[in-house]
Amino acid sequence: MRTGIPKLDYVVSKAEELGIKLIVPLLNGNDDLGGIDTYVTNYGGTKTSFYTDAKSQKAYLAYVEFIVNRYKASPAIFSWELCNEPRCEGCDTSIITTWATKVSSAIKKIDSRHLVSLGDEGWFAPPQKAPAGANTYPYSGAEGIDFAANLAIPDIDFGTFHMYPDQWEATDEWGNTFIKEHDAIGKKLGKPVILEEYGVKKAKSDRVKIMQ
């Protein structure tokens, strides 16, 4: 059976050689590179039922155990990420919070030395409110994510958030507010937070000015 493990072996060994630290995603919320859709295709259900589907979760946790055990002794590992951009559209936010609690605990039982993050985009949910005039979508909980509740999970060591103002019909200025809001929650919970992805759909000449 062909797998991507030899390629991942190479990446980890090369990172060790170059002194690079890796954040290792254990799943992808998007369909690229074999994400949640792969589990749905093989075990049934939907992208929203994945988080509670017994067959999918059994397979996912087996994969998590395999990967963590394989690389936990590597000095190149910085952290394990449960999923890149997990979403559960229309779900109660407790579904992903419960899922993340279970998976992060399972990882810590195998490897207590390395950090664990969820890998989410940092969506907020009520009672967090959108600033006046801002797009309410990132604050609605519509994607089943509650950043504050997830960061409070005992075995989640740091928070992540992503920021693409253009795609979210938001202003570049609002992006500064979004950063400060996550920083405030991190400080309240005593955990670091990183802006893991960001981007703007602007002309190259404008990007440096915007990102400054």
Helix content: 40-55%
Cα end-to-end separation: 48 Å
Q: What integer is the average pLDDT?
A: 93
Give me the side-by-side strand order of the main sheet.
Answer: 1-2-3
By DSSP, the count of extended strands is 5
Order of helices and strands: HEHHEHEHEHEH
Structural class: alpha/beta
Molecular shape = globular
Outline the biggest β-sheet.
Answer: 3 strands, parallel
Instruction: Indicate the low-confidence ranges by residue numbers.
Output: none
Notes on the structure:
With 212 residues, the protein is an alpha/beta fold. The protein is built from 7 helices and 5 strands, in the order αβααβαβαβαβα. It has helices at 5-18, 36-43, 54-71, 94-110, 147-151, 172-189, 204-211; strands at 22-25, 77-81, 115-117, 159-163, 193-198. α4 (94-110) links the parallel β2 and β3 (115-117). The chain is globular. The mean pLDDT is 93.
Q: Could you write a compact summary of the structure shown?
A:
Helices cover 42% and strands 11% of the residues. The chain is of the alpha/beta class and 212 residues long.
Summary keywords:
212 residues; alpha/beta; 3-stranded parallel beta sheet; 7 helices; 11% strand
